[in-house]
Design brief:
Elements: E1 22-29, E2 34-41, E3 45-48, E4 54-56, E5 62-69, E6 75-83, E7 89-91, E8 100-105, E9 109-114, E10 123-131, E11 138-147, E12 152-154, E13 158-161, E14 166-174, E15 182-189, E16 197-201, E17 211-217, E18 220-226, E19 234-242, E20 250-259
Parallel strand pairs: 4-11, 13-20
Antiparallel strand pairs: 1-2, 3-5, 5-9, 6-7, 6-10, 8-9, 10-11, 12-14, 14-18, 15-16, 15-19, 17-18, 19-20
Length: about 270
Amino acid sequence: MSTSGRGKINLTFPNSVRSNSGEYHCSIEGSRQQYPGVTNLFVYWIEMVNLNNSTEQGFSNAKMMCRYGPADMPLTGYKWKKIKKDGTTEIEDCSKDSRFEVTSYQNSILSLKIKKAKLKDAGKYQCEVTPVDGGQILKDTTQLTIEKVPLIMEIPTIITRESVNYVKLILKLTNVKNYGEMSNVMWYKHIEGKENKLLTSINSPDSTSRYQCGYVDESSAYLEIRNVKSGDEGKYICQVEFKEMEQHRHSCSGRLTVQGKSRYTTGS
């Protein structure tokens, strides 16, 4: 303080926390009287609301929430991000995706809802708010877990006869909608003691082959074997790829039994 009686008295918090917010009173005693002063300290803060951030893929909406303060603090902006494992940004602003819904509530709460969450939505999310006064951006993160709904695959056993024109093996899938659209289906014949033989695939068809394949609908596919021979009997394996998870293949197997020749040559 200078000789003129003017100066400053500071109260410093090296690492201010939310509990430091409040009203502070300062009193300076002079030779004849006291000089009181009052000020308010507002500490900006942000935290995630403790929700059960776990949902089943394809069936439920995932929801995350964060709150910030002081209460009703005016903002210049806010957003939710998705963060990769290495710390870089995967989605800069979740509100740009129509499946994501960002809501701001009057009680200083922000929420992020993901409609019919998919496996790819799992990961770390960051809520960011920017105060009006131009201070630092407030950030906090949370982890979203997506519980995988099992894909059920089945190829029912087929019994046919030698020399029929064709026979079809049908692949049936349950919960396929939760995995997205199929991008490829590959059919193999199991050969004991050797590598399975690729017969055909939807992405690499061969119109001259005895083996043809295709989709029946969005949850089933088929393998058609023409001019059935006794050697066609055995185990067949089907592998499926999905557009959103092409690095993963889902497989199952079924059996074809070929009996003696029939008097008829229609498909079975």
